[in-house]
Amino acid sequence: MIRIALLCLALWLYPAASSAQEIRVRSGEHGSFTRLALDIPVGLGWQTTYVAPRRLELRFEGEGYRFDSSAVFERINTERLSGLESLPEGAGLVLELGCDCVAEAFLAEPGMLALDIRAGDAPQMAEPSEPTPEEEEPLFGVRVGAQPGIGPPPARNPLLPVFVPQRTPEPEQTAAPPDEAEDGMDPVGLGRTLSEQLAIAASDGLLSPRTNGLAQRPAAFDDWTSGVAEDDAQDLSMQAPELTSAQSQIEAAVLGREPSDMQARVRIGGTGCVADGALDIASWGSDDTFHTTIPDLRRRLYGEFDTLDPEILAELVRAHVYVGFGAEARALLDLAPGERDPVLYALAGIVDGAPDRAGVFAGQTGCEGAAALWALAGAAKLPEGARVDHRSVRRAFEALPGPLRPVLGPTLATRLAEAGHVGAARNLLSRLDRSGGASDADMRFSRAQIDRLEGAVQEAHSVLEDLSHRAGAHAPDAVAATIALASEQGVPVNARMTDLSAAYSTELRATEQGPELWLAHLRALSANGRFEEAFAGFHAGDDMPEEQRRTAASELLTALTDRGSDTGFLREAVPRQAEYATLVRGNVALTVAQRLLGIGLADEAMAWASLPVIEPGSRDRRLLVSRIHLARNDPQQAEMSLIGLQGDDVLALRARARAMMGDYSYAQSAFGALGEDGAARSAAWLAGDWAALDEGEDALAAAAELAASALPDSLGAQPSLASVEALATSGSETRETLRALLEQTRLAEE
Questions:
Q1: What is the percentage of the chain residues whose pLDDT exceeds 90?
Q2: CA 67 to each of CA 106, 511, 633: distance values in angstroms, whole numbers, following the listed order
Q3: What mean pLDDT do residues 727-746 have?
Q4: Which residues, in sequence order, are bridge partners of residue 46?
Q5: In 3D, which of 59, 57, 35 has the Cα closest to residue 45?
Q6: I need a labelling partner for 177 at 20 to 30 A (CA). Which of 20, 145, 372, 441 fits?
Q7: How many CB atoms lie within 10 A of CB 471?
Q8: Contact 318, 285 (CB under 8 A)
Q9: What is the pTM for the complete model shown?
Q10: In this structure, are residues 329 and 342 in contact, taking their beta carbons and an 8 Å threshold?
Q11: Gap between the Cα atoms of 195 and 198, Å rounded
Q12: Residue 6: how many other CB atoms lie within 10 Å
């Protein structure tokens, strides 16, 4: 019985042990810091803690993980990281630092946790103390109860909201049924709404958090122009649902958050929309705003003892936004930075052509209200897959005051086209054209951008080139767009455009347009084959933003790999491989590695194929690594790299590996299945399969027939003349067959 019990216990424990998640740990030296990269499951929680000045613990949510760190110290020394071991029960890792270093952990990609170790002052260690009950709370999950929130109680994390229930005395009433609240909302639904709202408030950082599902209350416009489509007007009949008393309590409590700190937030999911009431710009002024309202408000801005009146300041800022004076509005808001309204500050910047860097309207392009317009106008670049409610954008555009339409219209049209709403973009430009006010250059530039996105390359190129040669605000942008269009089409850039890009990139380097013009000039040089100048400009661009540097590195290396000479390619790719380790895209690194392998530099190709920007388990990388191992005469590793892959390309590599290992029978079958008759017959010859070589008239077939033939057992004491003649003929045929075989297998001259 004991043996049976032990066997049952082992069988019960085996699946748990075998299903443990393995986390691979990779390493690399990057000049001033050492990086560890861990391939973790997407969404896995983690935490770093200094338990000693040179000892760091990296813990993961849950336990039972296996860590593959066998190759960590093959690529790095022990100067910064002297030791690495697993925590008990597979809960994480312990890092022993070899210097007074600091370690920074962050998610480089959704499935890759990076930990950079660099020289720095060791953190101050707190005195050890007994854990309090609050410290024993779990690190993950939503808490509902006396102290609702996410993770530990607010005492340990000041970024989480403090929820103080509003308790009001109520008259005695008959007890309601236990499964139904007094206002008709069941307790389960109330708890779910509470937890969802707390999660949004704690993680989304909105100015005015609202109950989930009731965040946006579309406001109906009374007067519309004749250009508004009927399907848009139908949407105006929507009304916001009434709030129940329980939901109102939740709303009031959550709105008690401090909204002024726009940076103290951690995004977990969910977005809200800035209410239409805060964006009713049409009500902020009139035709007399510039001549009458603004001067009057300026006179009343300071009261007795030169005290700034915050209410007058807010009215004055709104008046400046109404007439399109964004820079002046921001300057006024800077008079009282402690009381600055983030929404007004963002609006002032967007009106002046600046992006919404504070993220007030981030993720709100899909809102059913005016927030969609301002989110679209304030986006420096639309995120991939962003949803845009183009109907709300057009409705909000019609409601804008006259001075703002020509300012925002061309930008909104371009953004709509980028999001795939080309018809809505052209419709908006048509409305703007009918209402007047926008300059001809603005309209032409926006239409050219839309043509470019639609694929009308020649029309877009003609307009953009014409604008680039004219004096005006759009000339630098037109130069950058023209060169980008030429780069996309793979055609050279004329000398005048190249010179213009060089002049603008130097003159406007310190402006917001500087990075884009710097990139445009590098593209022009690359398109014309001037790779040495292009890479010299790239390496001198350390002051450029990381995004532009990544784009430039990937595009320049792709062009150099495709069209550059071997000398120029090797001069850039081999000695500077470490510099590009985190700059290029993964597919570009693979392209560089493939050309290095084609030149015959297998080790250098492997270095590029091992960069952290490449997904380790991707099919393309595994195929390339197999080819590199074959070039290194390591067929075992080449075949191991192909484990689990299928396809003709995989079979061809596996056949080559087996042939190198001497398994000619497998190689013969594989090459035959692929239709490579020449390789299959060569493998059959090496395998000694003479029957497979019978068909054909080449030297291999003749040699196989010769090998399969046999001499007479005995010619006797006195061979006949016929036998001697047969032997002589056979010898002559044998010599001719061997001569043809040697000629067919002759090595090519170097």
A1: 19
A2: 18, 47, 31
A3: 63
A4: 60
A5: 59
A6: 145
A7: 6
A8: yes
A9: 0.53
A10: no
A11: 5
A12: 10
